[in-house]
């Protein structure tokens, strides 16, 4: 029996769009024969989308859901090839099913998630259900990423621009009422707009700070070649602090009141509701970030499909 290598699994994934474990099993069942493995996956309904798997799916939506008790929440990005399909009711209904699946799931990574039984039809896996949707909709689609938060505090979500950006916030809250949820929704809007990288300063690694300091040092030296190092060092400290304020949520100027930072705003809310409210964690997904978008003439694409 031929040994199944990681390279063979990777190649089969690229050919079919099927999950890693399904590809590994297909290669084992077919003695490493790539063509037979593709047929095996097609027969199992896992490669129905194989012809579309090479197309770039960089449009799509981010969707969130929070449980009724506010103790857990999920966020998912599902991509399509075109914005037209991303706005389609069937696609959006499917994405709502995916995020509900994430909320109910204990999967820690995408492969485990894709191998799960699909909640809307237990005869299918999540991967098979995706493949079926691709066949019906007629475009390559991809469940790109997901995250689930479970807490003893409260989870609040926010969707911006019809699914272009999604935010989940986990907060510690001694009091949970409408005023607290509204305040956290305001902070989620801040995260969507200003894209901080951290909640607070102590989350930033020394390695990152050292790296930024070196960059700022070279910048300052280039801009002020005649100034002594003692002056440049003070300039660097000032610039680094300004940069870190932009990176850290609680240090950012609060968009609804520039006289406050987000941290001061939450302190104000805590006093008003009679209990401490603090952001512990946030997740921000922006549709298609980091993905290469394929530029195509839409009229030509329609003409091709009609032929």
TrEMBL record:
Name the major location.
cytoplasm
**What are the alphabetically sorted keywords of the record?**
Cytoplasm, Elongation factor, Protein biosynthesis
Which InterPro entries does its entry note? EF-Ts_dimer_sf, Transl_elong_EFTs/EF1B, Transl_elong_EFTs/EF1B_dimer, Transl_elong_Ts_CS, UBA-like_sf
Record GO terms (molecular function): translation elongation factor activity
Q: Where is this region: Involved in Mg(2+) ion dislocation from EF-Tu?
A: 82-85
- Listed NCBIfam families: tsf (TIGR00116)
Q: What name is this protein filed under?
A: Elongation factor Ts
Q: Which organism is it from?
A: Lacrimispora xylanisolvens
Query: Which superkingdom, per the lineage?
Result: Bacteria
User: Could you tell me which residue ranges the Translation elongation factor EFTs/EF1B dimerisation domain spans?
Assistant: 73-289
